[in-house]
Design brief:
- This protein has a single domain, classed as 2-Layer Sandwich (Alpha-Beta Plaits).
- β8 and β9 form a beta hairpin.
- It is globular and about 45 Å long.
- Strands 1, 2, 3, 4, 5 and 10 form a 6-stranded antiparallel β-sheet that branches. A two-stranded antiparallel ribbon has the order 6-7. A two-stranded antiparallel sheet has the order 8-9.
- It has 4 helices and 10 strands, in the order βαβββαβββαββαβ.
- It starts with a strand and ends with a strand.
- The protein is α+β, with helices and mostly antiparallel strands.
- About 25% of the residues lie in helices and about 30% in strands.
Length: about 170
């Protein structure tokens, strides 16, 4: 079966976010048909959007998977659910206990009602791009360019590298 390289963005700003993000990283590594291949440090970043809220703790996981994109999405949503992710509040950029987003899934391009890959906002999210750069600085994304280029073009954002999540 074909193995795809996948990048998953992880974020939290409700509860003990650093612990939640670290535990989510571990949970991602235990998804059937997946192997965790890289994990970024933890980053603190200011929240995006117009809803007053606390800073986020973010990280990115790189994994290899034999799963199909929607199957992986369901697995990630199950992890979010275990951390009481509230999807009833559909406001964009609302605070959350855990947010897991598939950023890239190999070279797939998907745009349906359940999933959009590449993630539609990833090029504007320094809190996703910098952790990805930490994991794979040589990454080239067809249609977008090099990861280094994307980081340099991303909007400025107040963020701080906290600690390595390497286990």
């Amino acid at each position: 079966m074909l193995t795809e390289h996948v990048y998953v963005a992880i974020g939290s700003n409700i509860g003990d976010s650093a612990t939640i993000v670290a535990q989510a990283m571990e949970a991602i590594g235990h998804i059937r048909g997946c192997e965790l291949r890289g994990r970024s440090s933890l980053y603190r970043s200011a929240a995006v959007g117009d809803i007053p809220q606390g800073d986020y703790i973010n990280a990115v996981a790189r994994l290899d998977t034999e799963l199909q994109p929607l199957d992986l999405l369901l697995e990630l949503q199950a992890i979010e659910h275990a951390y009481y992710r509230n999807r009833e509040d559909e406001r964009r950029w609302a605070p959350r206990t855990l947010d897991l987003d598939i950023v890239l899934f190999g070279n797939h391009r998907i745009n349906d009602s359940h999933l959009v890959i590449p993630h539609p906002e990833f090029v504007n999210r320094r809190f996703v791009l910098e952790p990805m750069l930490e994991i794979n600085g040589d990454l080239y994304i067809p249609g977008y360019g090099s990861l280094k280029y994307l980081v340099n073009q991303a909007p400025a954002l107040e963020m701080e590298k906290l600690a390595s999540s390497h286990g």
